[in-house]
Amino acid sequence: MNPRFYDAPALSRRGLLKFSLGATAFLATAGLGASLSGCSASSPANGFAIIRDSDLGFLRALLPVMLEGTVAAEKLPAATEQTLRSLDHGLDHLSPQMLKLTQQLFDVLGMSVTRGPLTGIWGSWENASSEAIRHFLQRWQNSSLSLLRMGHSSILQLVMMAWYSRAESWAHCGYPGPPKV
Question: What InterPro entries would the database entry show (predicted)?
């Protein structure tokens, strides 16, 4: 009797653990390799305290997609830049360990060697469509790899904290603002 595809057992726990361990090692090696090889610029971009030039392409492509629907389309470019400044301010106040991890995440997303296989964005972030970026976010959110789900959660939390710390976001969610003293 020939085994059929649907008769084959699904990925076992042991197999999933092995795969996850391999993916974790790959991502850690890629991030460390980028940091050590100089692919990761350590100096901030002009006008920023933490965000580097290598991070700007990714963030400027991602922020409009994540902010879509929260602000009028004509105000989206300004809201994106202001949220980027707020994100930079938030990153500047992270602990050194958390900042290092965040920069490693940005490095992995910025390097073409890791960006394509992990995100499905094979070209530069600047050329990625909104739909491709949404697909990347959904892919990471629903990934079977906990490392990718943690990456999604980190990106989401950083961007949302940067956006909702801005007064212009409060009206959208019905928050009247802090009480006047």
Answer: TAT_signal (IPR006311)
Cα separation, 13 vs 35, in Å, equals 33
Structure tokens at 171: 């009206």
- Cβ neighbors of 139 (< 8 A, separation 6 or more) are 119, 120, 148
How many angstroms separate the CA atoms of 80 and 171, rounded?
17
First to last CA, the chain: 80
Q: Which residue has the tokens 């400044």?
A: 85
Q: What is the pLDDT along the chain (181 residues), one digit of tens a residue?
A: 555 545 555 667 777 677 776 777 676 666 666 555 555 557 899 999 999 999 999 999 999 999 998 888 999 999 999 999 999 999 999 999 999 999 999 999 999 888 999 999 999 999 999 999 999 999 999 999 999 999 999 999 999 999 999 988 888 778 888 888 8
Those residues whose C-beta lies under 8 Å from the C-beta of residue 85, and which sit 6 or more positions away, are 48
Q: What are 107's two structure tokens?
A: 């490095």
Specify the length of the chain in residues. Answer: 181
What is the DSSP code string of 120-162? S--S-GGG--HHHHHHHHHHHHT-SSHHHHHHHHHHHHHHHHH
Amino acid (1-letter code) at residue 10 = A
Whole-number Å distance between alpha carbons of 54 and 14:
37
